[in-house]
Amino acid sequence: MNAARNKVNDRISTTKSLLCVGLDSDQNRIPELYRSMERPVLEFNRSVIKATKEHAVAYKINTAFYEARGLEGIQDMQDTLDLLPPDCLSIADAKRADIGNTSRKYAQAFFEHWDFDALTVAPYMGFDSLEPFFAYDQKLIFVLCLTSNSGSADFEEKQLQSGETLYESVLARVQEWDRNGNAGVVIGATKSSQLRDLRRAAPGLFFLIPGVGAQGGSLRDSATLGVDENLQGALINVSRGIIYPDGNFDSVDVFEDSVSRKAEALHDEMLKIF
Amino acid sequence: MNAARNKVNDRISTTKSLLCVGLDSDQNRIPELYRSMERPVLEFNRSVIKATKEHAVAYKINTAFYEARGLEGIQDMQDTLDLLPPDCLSIADAKRADIGNTSRKYAQAFFEHWDFDALTVAPYMGFDSLEPFFAYDQKLIFVLCLTSNSGSADFEEKQLQSGETLYESVLARVQEWDRNGNAGVVIGATKSSQLRDLRRAAPGLFFLIPGVGAQGGSLRDSATLGVDENLQGALINVSRGIIYPDGNFDSVDVFEDSVSRKAEALHDEMLKIF
């Protein structure tokens, strides 16, 4: 039994939500009112978490947005982790992987030092670059498979001589390598036409599905096609579509209310599939 | 003209060395004598840099080893950057890449906040995941191509329907995308049989060649086959093979002397190709 997987599946069934809130928190884009605070990004994240926690089953911290500000940003990441509701999955969206002895250090960083529940990793370097992550049998590992961006056509969607595409090959290999039941894949929400086949090919893998909202993916399709046979095993991530609602906000309450309504609307859509 | 490229090519020609020293500095593996110091990894790095700077043309900081210790490790990374000789190339070996707006943040982290000269990135997500890095026209971007680990067989070496392997496709696309003359690729030193063909196919790309030493790649082959027609454009990285010499070290001087001899021996081998 996998602690991270159980936690988030329980939460999915309880809340009837698949919502993963992406904390792509950009100091230059958060509402003006936070910028004069002592810890702008941390306070912004505090508001977003407060406003969404009723609807969310997971939170995804996009490490790039924190690393961009160096030590100060990483301090914000660390302190944000402490704000996450303990019954929600915490995901480091870091897309790491390297040769084995280096991947072990990344795994140590995210699973031991920061103690995230889950991590995104990149498959290019193959098995021994991923195995150190899979070795953490109480965590969830999401391997990039078919991403939402246009560049997915450059390599991911290329057909191999075996007849399958690269992303299908990644899906198949991840299933083979998943000896601890802790593997997942990242499938972009803009790829809903392939989602049905991918779910059929990998009924047991956890799917992390970003790309709804700013990137244009369909929420309904992603939810319907992404879940497993127990209506679990899938997370729909929305980042910019929740954390940056339109409007001018003259108080924290008004901002939180606006974010909360965004999350509620997404949750309402998701309820329909249960 | 690219500042990073020119700097390291000048240094290669002046020193007749291709040596990149990999600072994969592991707190649990550094000599005992450093562990009682206030900043063990930083002091260890100071010794390694001092002992190798006559022979090195570049230093590669493997971000995993610093992230593994959280803020304290990243503080060590930041302070190590200040110790690097300004005429050597500073490389963040971070293997980042994500959708465009996220890659922009990683580029900001490594090229603006930390101000590295160069960065390693992963190609899986395609053009728009790499373009934000290539946009920094005074920096060098090394895209993973054919790596030194056994997992390179899982995806990188797979043949595409077009007849080329995935890594050959990556090499070709990186050349197309290199509008600023700031692209490079990572080719493992264990792949010397392919190195000649890759250099012929991409005469203008910078090659970062890790895998000599602990991973078993041939130094002589990597150097001979990796350089461009001006005997520049290639870096041979050695990490564990330099920074962890055998022996018990009862003083900083004895350790530095041992590291220095390792670097000198590698430099002596490289001199032969000039």
From TrEMBL, chains A, B:
Domain of life: Bacteria
Pfam family membership, one: OMPdecase
Pathway connected to this protein: Pyrimidine metabolism; UMP biosynthesis via de novo pathway; UMP from orotate: step 2/2
Keyword Hydrolase: no
GO BP: any one term: 'de novo' UMP biosynthetic process
E.C. numbers: 4.1.1.23
Metal-binding is among the record's keywords: no
InterPro entries the record matches: Aldolase_TIM, OMPdecase_type-2, OMPdeCOase_dom, RibuloseP-bd_barrel
Annotated keywords: Decarboxylase, Lyase, Pyrimidine biosynthesis
Uppermost EC category: lyase
Reaction catalyzed: orotidine 5'-phosphate + H(+) = UMP + CO2
Gene Ontology MF annotations: orotidine-5'-phosphate decarboxylase activity
Domain (Orotidine 5'-phosphate decarboxylase) ranges: 18-255
Protein family (similarity comment): Belongs to the OMP decarboxylase family. Type 2 subfamily.
Protein name as catalogued: Orotidine-5'-phosphate decarboxylase
Species, as recorded: Chlorobium phaeobacteroides (strain BS1)
